[in-house]
Structures are given as structure tokens and as C-alpha cells.
Amino acid sequence: MATRRPRTGNLPVETTELIGRRTELAEIRRLFEEARLVALTGVGGVGKTRLALRAASEAQPSYRDGAWWVELSPLRHGVMLGHTIAEALPLVDRTTRPMLDVVVEYLADREALLVLDTCEHLIDQCALMAETLLRGAPGLRILVTSRRPLNMIAEQLLDVAPLPVSDSAADEATAGTDAVALLAARAADVVPGFSVTDANRAELVRLCRRLDGLPLAIELAAARLRELPLADLIERLEDRYAVLGTLDDVVGEAEPPWHGTLRTAIGWSHELCTPAERLVWARLSVFAGGFDAEAARQVCADTHLPGHEIPALLEALTEKSVLTWQPTAAGERFRMLDTIREYGAGWLGGLDEEDELRRRHLAHYLGVARAGSAAWIGPDQYAWYDRGTAEHDNFRAALEYALSAPDGLQDHAALELVGSLWFFWYGCGFTKEGQHYVNRALAADTGPSPARVQALYIASHVLLYLGDLSGLEERAAECSALAARFGERERAQAAAAELRVAAMRGDPARLASLVEELLATPWRRRPLTFMPLFALVMGAHAHVTAGRFEAAMDLLDELSAVCERHGEHCMRAWGDLVRAQTELARGRPHVAWAYARDSLRVKHRLRDGTGSGMALDVLAQAMAADGSSHQAAWLLGLAQRVWDTLGRSQAGIPSFIAARRACEERTRAALGDSAYEAGFRTGYDTDLDLGTARVLGDMSPLSPPSPDPAD
Question: How far apart are CA 267 and CA 512, in angstroms?
Fold first, then answer.
């Protein structure tokens, strides 16, 4: 049965109309007819990103597997390039393979467009990545934006120039149409009712000509019309140019004039800021990606810049288009364009404050990580998921600084940060990246310390999700040996690491013994933490595997009650999954279905691929046990799509693997090979979000799903 593939991709929403650029869009289409790699080059602020987004949006329907946007500006080191691309794709690999191999394998048989936005600071790494991807994925096309070419043989270049503005003043009525249209559109955003008229057209053309048609410079100028009449704005800008001259001595005669124009326009905007606005502009340059007002206050405020002034300064810089305001699930956030951030970073270096501000940035995000670690097991779990994912770029920047600065190793900041971010690696779906940073922190800070014990304990959790038994055994053994030198907390962490080894080995006796040891502590009289909840889940799982269903239910009842009291979702969802397995073993598939679906609802909200895959497997088993074999085949296919994004099915846990295999065999036997393969393929080809919505909606053993709307 043929299925229609949904429109797929992750392209950002186009929030403004693209003005002009019809010629460039046509040229991009022509270049892709001849080549698989097209690079849009040009000075910062010329509009490469905006042009690439429109080109990708127009091209998206022609790519069977979608168009995917990868933003590289927050990435300060190329070592995370593969991870960043994987995160942009519907790919959350949880194996120990190199990420480049994972990405190539995922794209190998797909027809997709990959947009690598802002490559100039990672030229060599992007070139190597592009070469590898194009060689391994013949259906892939890559669109690059960069201030410099990648210097690849396969690369077709399009140098993006500013919007055209006539050099002649003979016909002011028609000169610089696109540039003037952009200026008018942005001016209307800050001055309601602003429009091009016969009275102001000549001045608008004059301003666009002075700014060489450079889109970023035009937008910065337009923002000033909130406070300055057009004539005054032009006069002040021309005064600025008169002071700096042509800048030929600075930029060199070989460079286009708009290189100097951009620096002049940003510098002019900088001069028109108050001293406090300039200082906060410089200090905000240490953030990667976005930030919220509280982070700005914590990092930027001191005796020279009082904290209570920060919100008003952020608002002022937003009005001047230095910052962009962004509403998100984690609250309102702010962001700087790369070119504007670079200007601020230059001033920060001149103030000799960069190292101090990066230390403050690290300290703030270490505090955020500690707060998230403490609050994850509680009612704010979803909010912390949203906040954690919003701060991803800043966590990376803080980790890189901690790993590179001597102070970060002397005070164990790197180990503390990777350990405190356990909830992010585990709960927010960044397990593979967690492995990367935990390994680096352990390699950089090798002395005995409680922070190292915690990092080894977190490594065991990450390796369980990655299904790496040998690596897990090694880290758990070191954790146990080192924990013996410290206190009760460290010894409990070592026991939890050993428990994970027992789970992966399929050793129920050892697992039960370790669960008993962990639950024998007075955890019920202390603030709730992850560890006893994990022990309850794993203990119940061991009992189910051994056929001790009543004992399993006792542990699961306690888990549910504790989680209910504390408003915890994630571990309760794991408990619901084990409860569903118990109900299946007791011959009650309808009850199992309800618990597995509750588990899926939480795991999907937290983007937990492993949890979602296991829940879908159990739902398939419930369907098969109920005799709904067509639905079971469909669910097995949908679950397999999840497992293929993770790289290792069922996290390598023997009992889960055996249950899935038995369900496959039972369903195939009930349907026959042809019908089974058709149902499986239909499920596999269903978009994950769409398929999950169907399962969480009206799909049940008693009410089979309606035919796939894509059929």
C-alpha cells in the first residue's frame, strides 16, 4: 500500500517578508541543477541567512526527506559539529559510534537538503564534514552560508551583494527600489504608519545609498527612526562617515566598500548608545545563542553596571535592533546577530574583561545546572526540560571554558558541571553529547574527588542508555574503587552504577541485591532524589523478569505514590512502563495498554527516544496479545523508526530485546509475511509526531485506528 510522505524538515519560520533577491533565488536554483554544494558568501549583515532560508523553503517540497537547518553560530569549537547536525536531524543516536559515521549512515539513502548556516569560524571542519556527507549520501544537497568559501572542488559559489542602489542621482524616484522597500518596511515596525512618499523618497534613497544597500546597516538605521527624524538621522550618519573617511587604509582597496560600511554602521549605532548600553552590549557577547534577563543580570552586573538597570538596558538595545527579543517555552529570551556580537566581543577584549566575564558565565551556568539537578525530580520537570534545551548553547560554552581554563580544573568545575547536568544528558535527550563531555572532563581532571565519583556515576547512566556494556563495566568499577575513599553519598552512587551493570548483563540476582542495598538507606526521610526512584524501577523490572508479579507491584505502588506526592513525571513513566509489562505477563493487555500509553505521553513530551521506543514496543505487545495483529505490526514499524534514530534497540537490555522479538514473531505468524511487512512499513513511514499523536488519541485495542490518512 503506497503512502504519502509528509512535508518534513525543521526550517525556521520566516517572520518577515524577504524583500528583493529574485535574481539570487533563481541563481541558487540554477546552481543546484549543476552541483550538490552551493555556498552563499559575503560580508556579515548582507543577508545570507535570510536568503538561504527563503531558498530552502522554496526548495523543500522537492526533497523527499525534507530540508534541515543547522545553525552553527553558537558553536565555538568544531568538535561538536557532528552532534549539532545530528540534533537538527530527526536523529538521536545512542550508540558509541563516531557521530560522523552516524550522520552519514542516516543520510545515506535519503534525498534531503541540509543548510549549514554561518560556517566561517569552522571552515576546515565544515569542508571535511561536507565532503564526507556528499560522498556517503548521493541524494543529499548542501547549502552553506559563510563569509568565506569552503574551498572545495564541488563547491559552487554565489557571492551575495548588498541590495542594489543606483550611483546616479538622476532618477531618485526609481533608484534603490529594494533597499528603500526594506528601509520602509523596518521603519514601519518602529514608526506606525511610516511609508514612502514623494516628500521623503529622495531622502530614503540617499540614506540607502550612504549605507551601500547593506541590509543589516539599513535595519540598524531604521530602528533609529523611533527617536530621530529622517533628516537628522542622515546628517548624523554622514558626520560619522566624514570622521572615518573611506576606510581604505583599514580594509584595503581590494575589499568591497560595504565591508567598511558595515563597521561604520555598527560603530555609529554603538556611538549613539549610552555608556551603560555599550558596556552591557560588550558583556552580553559572552553568551552563546540566546539568554534571559536573569542570566544577563547575573553575568553582566557589577558596581559599574547595577543589576536593577539590566532589564531597561535590554529593552533599549532591543529597540535599537542590537538585540532580538524571542518568546519561547522557557520564557522571554534575547539574542544577538553574529556580526553585532563580534563587535561587542571586540570591545570586551579592549576592556580586558573577557576572561572575567567568561568566569562569571561559567559560574552562572554551573548554578543553573545545580538548580536543575536539584529540581528535576519534582513538579517543575517539564519547565526544566524547556529551560535546559533553551540553554543548550550556553551549557556548551561553559563546558568548553571550564575544560580550557586552569581554574576550571583546579576547582573541579568541569567535573561539577558535567555531573550536575545529568538531568540534561538523561532527561532532555542529549545522552551522546553527555558521553562526549563526561569523557573529556574525566580525562582532564584525574585526581580523586567526590566530583569525579559523581562524574563516573553519571557516565554509567549515559553508557546504559548507549548500550555500551564494556564501557559501563569499566566506569562502574572505577566508581566503586574511588567511592570507597569517601562517604555514604559516593558509595550509593557506586552501587547505582553497579546496578546498571547488572541490568545490562541480565543478572537478576545481583540486580535485586543492589536494589535492596539502595532502598535500605533512609531515603524516605530525606529530600527525594533520582537514585531511590531508579532503584524502585529496576527492582520492579527484576521481579517481573523473575515472575514475581506481586513483589513488582509493591515496588511500583510505592514509586507511583512517591512520584504523585512530588509531582514527578519521568520516573513515574518508567514505572508505568514496567507496570504495563507486568500486566502483559498477567494476561491483561487492555490494562497494559493504558499504562504504556501513559508512559509514552510523558516520554514523548520529554523527547526521550529510548523511553518512547520502549513504550511503543510494549503497546505493540499489548495489541498482539489482544489479537489486533495489524495494529501490532503498525506499532512495531513506528517503534523501529524510533530505534533507528537511536542506533541501538531496547538499549541492549536482554529482557526488552527478547520481548520485542517474541512480539515480532507472533505478529508475523498471525498475519503472514506479506501483510506483516505491509503493516510494518506503513508504521515505519509514518511521521513520529503524527504516529504518536494517533496512539495518544483514539487508537486502542478496543477501537482500532482508522486507515492511515497518508494511504
Answer: 67
d(CA 594, CA 597): 5
Average pLDDT over residues 162-182: 69
Q: Which of 182, 208, 163 is nearest to 42 (CA)?
A: 163
- Shared domain for 292 and 321, answered yes or no, is yes
Q: How far is CA 208 from CA 19, 162, 178, 573, in A?
A: 14, 10, 10, 58
The answer to whether the CB of 62 falls within 8 A of the CB of 106 is no
Specify whether 427 is located in the same domain as 341: no
Least confident of 139-153, 212-226, 645-659: 645-659
CB 633 within 8 A of CB 683: yes
21: left (phi over 0), alpha (psi -120 to 50) or beta: left
Residues 65-87: tens digit of each pLDDT: 999 999 999 998 888 999 999 98
**Percent of the chain at pLDDT above 70?**
91
Nearest CA to 110 out of 141, 67, 69, 139 is that of: 139
Instruction: Give the separation between CA 373 and CA 409, rounded to whole angstroms.
Output: 21
Tell me: pLDDT of 302 over 70: yes
* Structural domain for 492, as ranges: 385-552
The span from the first CA to the last CA of the chain, in angstroms, equals 7
Query: Cβ contacts of residue 688 below 8 Å, gap of 6+?
Result: 90, 638, 641, 642
| Rounded Cα distance, 227 and 646, in Å | 53
Cβ neighbors of 599 (< 8 A, separation 6 or more) are 573, 574, 576, 577, 580, 611, 615, 618
Report helix, strand or coil for 429.
coil
Domain end marker among 243, 270, 297? 270
Strands 331-335 and 324-328, how do they pair? antiparallel
